Amino acid sequence: MRTNIISAFLVILSASYTQAQSDFTPAYSPNGKQIAFYRYVNKVPEIMIINTDGQHLYQLTKTTGIWSIGPIWSKDGNSIYFSHGEGMANLDASTIALKTGKVERMKKEGMQFSLGASKKGLIWANKGANGMTYYEASGKDLSHTRQITVDGFENFTYVNHPGKSLIIAVKTEGKEGIYVKKPGGEFKRVADHKKPQNVSVSPNSKYLLFESSVNQNSDIYMVKTDGTELKRLTTDEAPDYMPAFSPNGKSIVFSSARSGAFYLYTMELKNGKITQLTGR
Question: Which of 95, 120, 139, 146 has the most crowded CB, counting CB atoms within 10 A?
Fold first, then answer.
């Protein structure tokens, strides 16, 4: 599961990069065979899917002029949650069925952002007049919602596995960093990086991936959920963004401008081998 900082959905591109060559927020399918992401098509972000071997790329959403960003696979792999709307100020948390292409939008006040899949449905955030509020939506049409509250943090997610339950939270003001809370415990800061974003949790809940900007360049880092074994995974001069674990935890996917435009890359964690996935 990955928790996305809202500002990271749309990367501010420098003059060296064009939106026509931009692939962002990659997410592995539950079976590890495909990756969903969003790409700018005619200057509008659309959801794309590609096989993990770089073959069979296709465009999932085809709504001219309507934004579709931040794809997240449902637990059963039959649908994708994403944020959908007429520009940044009018986004709704939505879902699209892969077999039929039918889109369901959660029409509510404010901006809605899809953040992660839970056992029951979707974790989403609403940005209204009083700031960010977080919810879990469940049911066939995601009509049943319950509010989730973690005071003092800008962004967070729940991670649930048999016998394990974590809350991963990000703080971008004050004591910045990534915090982890286990059942019955208190929040512990496990990484003190400034402005950490796009946290991804390994399938066994033992490791976290995140991006952080050091010396004005964003790189990918990994750390254990107890705060040990912090490791910098990328060192390229170009920015690296939005990492996500594969379902088996052996590799990651991320967006990088190392080829002159933002494309997707995979890395094998065992040996650090990086392979370009899109834009080849």
Answer: 95
Q: Which amino acid is at 60?
A: L
Which position has the token pair 């039918």? Answer: 102
Run of H or E including 70: strand 67-73
Domain, as residue range, for 227: 151-280
What's the rounded Cα separation, in Å, for the pair 133 and 18? 33
Under 8 Å between Cβ of 68 and 84: yes
What pTM was estimated for this model as a whole?
Answer: 0.84
Residue finishing a domain among 149, 164, 184: 149
Residues of the chain with pLDDT below 70 are 1-21, 89, 106-119, 121, 123, 127-132, 140-143, 148-167, 171-173
**What's the pLDDT tens digit per position in 149-203?**
655 565 555 554 444 556 677 766 677 888 887 777 788 888 888 778 888 889 8
Q: Clarify whether residues 76 and 196 are in a common domain.
A: no
In the 3-class helix/strand/coil scheme, how is 163-202 assigned residue by residue? CEEEEEEEECCCCCEEEEECCCCCCEEEECCCCCEEEEEC
